[in-house]
Amino acid sequence: MNAPISQHALLGSTRTPAPQTSPARRPEAGPQDWEQLVSPGHVLGRQTARAGKLLFFPALAVFAAVGLHTLHVAANLAGFTLPLPRLPLPMVSYSLPQWVRDGLTYDPNTYVDLQGGVRTSYRYAWLQDVPRSRGLSAKGWTDLVAAVLTDLQANRLETDRWTATPALATAPKVTRPTKALTEHVARLDTGIVTVSPAGAQPRIHVVAMVDGAWGWVTFSQFGCQQSFGPPIPTCAQTRAIPDINDLRPASN
Q1: What pTM value is reported for the model?
Q2: 135: left (phi over 0), alpha (psi -120 to 50) or beta
Q3: Residue-wise pLDDT tens digits, 10-21
Q4: Helix, strand, or coil (residue 216)
Q5: pLDDT at position 250, please?
Q6: Alpha-carbon distance 101 to 234, whole Å?
Q7: What is the rounded CA–CA span in Å between residue 62 and residue 60?
Q8: Which residues, in sequence order, are CB contacts of 251 under 8 Å at separation 6+?
Q9: CB-based contact 144:168 (threshold 8 Å)
Q10: Is-contact 249 182, C-beta < 8 A?
Q11: Which of 125, 131, 166, 172 is 20 to 30 A from 78 (CA-CA)?
Q12: What pLDDT does residue 252 have?
């Protein structure tokens, strides 16, 4: 019987094969000596602190560059120049939409939007909190102001002797300023006339919702001044005046 052919015979090798031995096992990497003496939490803390120190200064540089660039953009939008240092930032051209520019730059005297194309000072922002309604027509508004003027010329502040205002097809509510837009705010639909109390500066406000927007006329020592609403020919068009705050609810 032929002996089996070994690999060394096929290769023409005459060397005596070395005895087979199992390879030596490589020692596994273990923890460092100092890691064996402390808890895993301390090890993780030390590693995190070291990483934070390495990243602190690059992060600080990026944060400063972004901050200065933001200040530069804001200064340009506001219309003035800041003496900021030049930074090695890429040149980027951009154009903000007009509505964004309007939101960033505004005129304090037209800050409050009362809708219907009417804007007024930030001092009268509380007007936005008053419920809106359809209210009077333009003619109903004109008739209301004319009736109040007639009664003032005939009987001044003696409202119990007024005749033209109560005779209107839709009579307004005559009341004190402090009650106008609180207890009687619903009467903006038909108009509210306020008369200053005894001892106060004589002042009469005629206020209503007119076609869904504010209508406001004030009679005082300065004559007839109109802040909002369809124009009254006999009144000066003054926009909002500080006297409007006579009717401001105490909660605003």
Answers
A1: 0.60
A2: left
A3: 334 444 444 554
A4: strand
A5: 87
A6: 39
A7: 5
A8: none
A9: yes
A10: yes
A11: 125
A12: 74
pLDDT of residue 226: 98
Q: How far apart are CA 167 and CA 120, in angstroms?
A: 33
**Two tokens at 39?**
């808890």
Q: Please give the Cα distance from 54 to 51 (Å, whole number).
A: 5
Contacts 24+ apart (CB under 8 A), 157-165: 157/195, 157/196, 157/202, 157/204, 159/195, 165/193
DSSP for residue 227: E
Tokens, residue 8: 């060394």
Structure tokens at 33: 């000596």
The answer to whether residues 220 and 243 touch, using CB atoms and an 8 Å cutoff, is yes
Q: What is the mean pLDDT of residues 151-164?
A: 96
Cross-strand bridge partners of residue 174: 193
- Taking the C-alpha atoms of residue 177 and residue 244, their distance in angstroms, rounded to an integer, is 10
Summary mean pLDDT of the chain? 77
C-beta neighbour count of 4 within 10 angstroms = 6
**What is the pLDDT averaged over residues 199-224?**
96
At residue 82's C-alpha, the angle toward residues 80 and 86, to 5°, is 135
Residue 54: CB partners within 8 Å, gap ≥ 6? none
**Strand pairing report for 173-175 and 192-195:** parallel
Which of these, 53, 181, 91, 77, lies nearest to 127 by C-alpha position? Answer: 181
Provide, rounded to the nearest whole percent, the portion of the chain with pLDDT above 70. 58
Amino acid at 112: V
